[in-house]
């Protein structure tokens, strides 16, 4: 049973991430939005630890990152100060970036393409968007006026930066949120560039591995 779960570890993580990213607005009438986000992101962190179960150094590193994140995540329910919010957001950004690097190493070192490898590829893409969404939040809190929305609005509804991050990563860019400062503009450009390069390199890698696998089978 455990082995079956481990073989689908990134598929499980992908499902949890999709719930965290997509499902939140549909549950706000049933459960408090912040509570729902805390529960789902906590599940994402625990699932992330599971994905690194066999990599001792990586597992220790992700645990050391996840534990303070979880503490601050739940502490913010009782202490809504800007300092706690800023600290937990910055730690989440570091956690997301760490997961991007670890998962990309896993994907690009994979000898064959499996369903779980494809799930891992999507997971890394989602973590890139989440990293930038937290980074945008940190920037606005440290340098108010970096975006066209106020810091108070961000504190009330931080998901707006998650929305901005995803439309930037996909180069959709509806324009409701606009980067104002040079730092914000540079970060937005970087995310859009990374989003396109990631897809290009990933597709090339997956096609190459798939072609190599077919070539070995024919031999």
**Domain module tally:** 1
How is the main sheet built? Answer: none
The computed structural class is mainly alpha
Tally the helices.
9
- Shape type: globular
Determine Rg (CA atoms, Å).
18 Å
Count of β-strands: 0
What's the overall average pLDDT, rounded?
Answer: 83
* Uncertain segments: none
Distance between the termini: 35 Å
Q: Classify the beta-strand content into a percent band.
A: under 5%
Query: Percentage of helical residues?
Result: over 70%
Structure, explained:
The protein is mostly helical and 219 residues long. It has one domain (2-218). The chain is 81% helix and 0% strand. The chain has nine helices and no strands. The chain has helices at 2-7, 9-27, 33-51, 56-78, 82-109, 115-142, 151-156, 159-169, 182-218. Helix 2 (9-27) crosses helix 6 and helix 6 packs across helix 8. The protein starts with a helix and ends with a helix.
SSE diagram, text form:
Elements (H helix, E strand, L loop, with lengths): L1 H6 L1 H19 L5 H19 L4 H23 L3 H28 L5 H28 L8 H6 L2 H11 L12 H37 L1
What would a concise description of this structure say?
The chain has one domain. Helix content is 81%, strand content 0%.
List keywords for this structure.
9 helices; mainly alpha
